[in-house]
Design goal:
The chain has one domain. Strands 1, 2, 3, 4, 5, 6 and 7 form a seven-stranded mixed sheet that branches. The chain is built from five helices and seven strands, in the order ααβαααββββββ. It is of the alpha/beta class.
């Protein structure tokens, strides 16, 4: 009977740990699944990523929650994730070298000169905000922009979701502007 109770306690603990969400960003790097999703969405060949986060314009984050929502609980989570982006401000982060190679990106310390960009066929600089999380870590939001030359740029807010123990998946995107 004692062994049964101990086994139940251990299994219960393991179940809680297995279903618990992974820790939110530690500012060392955004979650890899989110970076991979953005790279797929951007679709450029030669991708550079700015090695620090950018700040999101308040007017841009407000655009996502302005429209009516069918589910007020989801809206509250997304609003919290957007507010979390603003609270984090600019952070330095670094992708592990193995992740950098696997994703085929080059991390740069600062924005290259405009002359470096020759359009979609040339290098493209992706800049990401800090990743903001809902209080329960089931939603994440990130503002990202790309720059690939004169009249070749854009910005998007991407919202991701996950259930406990699962990976991040794209939930919604709001393209804000492009040229």
């Amino acid at each position: 009977m004692i062994i049964h109770r101990q086994t139940s306690l251990v299994l219960g603990f393991l179940l809680i740990v297995a279903c618990a969400p992974e820790p939110v960003s530690d500012a060392a790097a955004p979650p890899r699944a989110i970076v991979e999703s953005i790279l797929r969405e951007a679709g450029f060949k030669e991708r550079w990523i700015l090695g620090r986060t950018i700040t999101i314009p308040t007017s841009d984050s407000a655009a996502l929650v302005r429209a009516p929502w069918a589910d007020s609980a989801v809206r509250a989570k997304v609003e919290h994730a957007l507010a979390d982006i603003h609270s984090r401000g600019q952070e330095r982060w670094r992708l592990a070298d193995s992740v950098e190679r696997a994703l085929g990106v080059r991390v740069v310390k600062s924005s290259p000169r405009q002359a470096s960009f020759t359009g979609p066929a040339g290098p493209t600089l992706l800049s990401l905000s800090a990743v903001g999380f809902s209080e329960d870590s089931t939603f994440a939001a990130v503002y990202w922009q790309y720059e690939c030359g004169v009249r070749c740029a854009g910005a998007t807010i991407s919202v991701y979701t996950r259930s406990p123990g699962a990976g991040w998946r794209l939930w919604r995107q709001l393209p804000l502007w492009m040229s």
